[in-house]
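REQUEST ID: PR-0412
SUBMITTED BY: lab tech R.K.
PRIORITY: routine
TASK: structure prediction, single protein chain
INPUT:
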Amino acid sequence: MTIPEIDVTPLFGPPGQARADADAAIARAAQGMGFLLIRGQPASVPTPDLLRIFELPQEVTRRLWRQKFAPAQANVYRGWFPLQNGHATYKEGFDAGPDLAYGPARVRAGDPLCEATPLPPAYLLPGWQAGMARYYRAMEEVGEALLRSIARGLGQPEDSFATAFEGGISTLRLLHYPVRPPESFEGVNADEIWTELEGRRVPLAGKAHIDSGFVTLLAQHGISGLQALDPEGNWVDVPPRDGTLVINFGKLLERWTGGRIRATRHRVIGREGVPRYSVPFFYEPRVDAEIAPLPGLGPDFAPFRYGDHLWAAMMRFVEFEGLDHLRPARAGPVGAVAS
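STATUS: complete
OUTPUT:
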């Protein structure tokens, strides 16, 4: 099985046969492989300009570290997570939230999921913050168009998901997978980190997992290594084609659609002597958005708040382990605004 590539230009135009054909193609990919490449989105794939943050000296990036790695820091959820030895995944990265694009009005005190994004000094990266903000808003536009298409493909009103995403807390992540040094393997179960590829034993840069949320929009920047698990249990290469974005769906969207949309396991293979960079955008609702069964899709489940789900899901990742107590589940009826 190969990864389908779909021209999504019609999603941004009027209703008609072209849009219906694009909806059908997206529905087939979402219900089959659970992975697709898209082209024709109005926003360009980000240039290496966004990745300039990885060129900053450590004394600068250290000031962006999350509280887990620098206890004196105020930021818990946003900001920088450094390289860590002894884990199956070996990466560093930076997470930005909606305040990057919309300003402090999107920051909410008392909830780490709504905290401000710590930023490097503007004079060190001229134009970088403005470029990040433009890309963030553009990916929101693409994410909204994809979910409207998914709703139409399922025979639902096209705005079935839209309300939940108004004022969402989407994350724009910048990732660097460097070449693994020998010390990074110490203490890791060999079965977690090594795999066979083309007759060779190679290490994983990112262990196999399923995204927890809704829709991930990923720019790969020309380096291969991403693989998706097809329905027959085979690992399939996800090619880094110029001008395309990789789209995959998360476990929560699979649940919300009664299993009709497939959340697919994926991993990153390390390439000998070659670092990897990527830019995923996780399209996400508001923290207080109600996730409840959609009519006619099932199965039935008790409604819950997205923020509570997200926080519990994130605690399974190494960069958040041990932080559960910093955000208790919000009290009160589902749908009430979290404080």
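NOTES: The helical segments are 17-31, 58-61, 99-102, 128-153, 190-193, 251-256, 306-314.
REVIEWED BY: pending
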